Amino acid sequence: MASIRSGNQSALVVVDVQVGVMARAWDAPRAITQVARAVERARAAGVPVVWVQHHDQQLVKDSPEWQWVPELAPQPGDVRVHKQYESSFESTTLEGELAQRGVSHIVLAGAMTNWCIRATAYGALDRGYDLTLVKDAHTTSHLDLEGGLQVQAEQVVQDLNVVMRWITYPGRKSGTATAEDVAFTAAA
Question: Exposed end of the chain (fewer CB within 10 Å): N or C?
Answer without folding.
Answer: C
